[in-house]
Amino acid sequence: MFRIRRMGIDTQSEHVLFIHADAVHGGLLGFKPLDRVRVGGNDPESGKRREITGILNFCEDDLVGREEIGLSNVAFADLGLPAGATVEAELAVSPASVDKVRGKLRGQRLSRRDFDEIIRDVTARQYSKPELSMFVLACALQNLDDDEIADFTRAMIDSGSSLQFDAPIVADKHCIGGVPGNRTTMIVVPILVSLGMTVPKTSSKAITSAAGTADTMGALACVDLRSEDLHRVVKQAGGCIAWGGALDLAPADDVLITVERPMQLDTEAQMVASILAKKKTAGATHALIDIPLGPATKVRTQQTAEELGRLFRHVADIIGLDVDVVTTDARGPIGCGIGPRLEALDVLAVLRRDAEAPIDLREKSLFLAGRILERTGVAPDSCGYRTAQEALESGRAEQAFQRIVEAQGPRALPEEARFKAWVEAPEAGRISQIDCLGVGRIAKLAGSPAHAAAGLRCLSRVGDVVEAGDPLFEIHAQSDPQLGIAEAYARRELHRLVRFGY
Question: What is the pTM of this model?
């Protein structure tokens, strides 16, 4: 028997347990470091049995007592017992579904039932980090066929709850990512809302990028909305821009992200399953999928873009979601800012119709909003762009955005970064390409998105003619060492990051 103790250690979604290396109980039970251990006890109030399974670590000092078992933050929360409660601990075996994952690594096909079992166990946090990584790699190395991806998606949908809204059309949009500064969602949503549409937009935080939509919106408003809060916001403001991770929508996806992020891996199968499952469970009836196409993005050829679009439409048809897919130009970042604060400033500039607002961000947002308006029948064919433009130029979109911010809970824009550095053009010429992944890496090295003010401003963009010595980027950081690392990388890789020509 052990008494539980909350360790105050953030292990994201993984259940991690700690016992003292000299604990008598540990010796008697034959525990070893990294064993899978089941911990359980009765709730003192309800009498209900509560259990979790986690990975065991040994402590050689007095972080935990010899009669205690320490729990990481998520393990403590999921167990749901008060600190000091008495629990039993016993060795646990890997879920049977792990064998299905090993089979996939050997080239075996996964059935709908297999995916149901795997996703059920992933959602219940029965998989260790190595086992999660094995599943992600199995999907990456052994390409899933169309039916497997559809089964994967349906299993993700069934793994959590779903939102429902009292509206005949519920619109959504999603960009597959890979383009820094591409914060069109924060402009498209208020445009649609200002025209009477219902748009409960759930977005992600950064996985492989310098900032996700939820990171940028989080610089202006609360994004950690629970289901009841989201319904309230949508009823009050017509839409929202919230973080999907705070909701129980396809929760297995949020667990898988914890290994996809450090592995810098985002496979087509997982991308399609994740995006469409989140759209469906968020209550969407219609969704627009933006596939950026460029030499340094996730999708680099027209053929790949067309195949991915076909896959999105195929799976969407199976799950009953009306999907429109567009391919957009991604030869460089969209807008000027990269990083939560700087991207938020771009969004506000567009919504406020500032003369210095990024034209590319404005035009792409109007194009995407127009596509949705036409697809849903809110605007006639060929009139979507003009309808969206009128909503923006009239100020109605800005007003809609402010209503959303107020309903979610406004936040003060983070103060400007303390440290800055310019990176200059090494030669004269017309900029023909800016490496999206590379400039995103500069922003991450500068501290984004952990530091909301950190990131990068693109002072010159694709198509601009520059002279040698003209500023290309302005790096923003909250510490001098981070600035130095980001600046050194930018100067070292500049020949690759920016291409010139006439």
Answer: 0.87
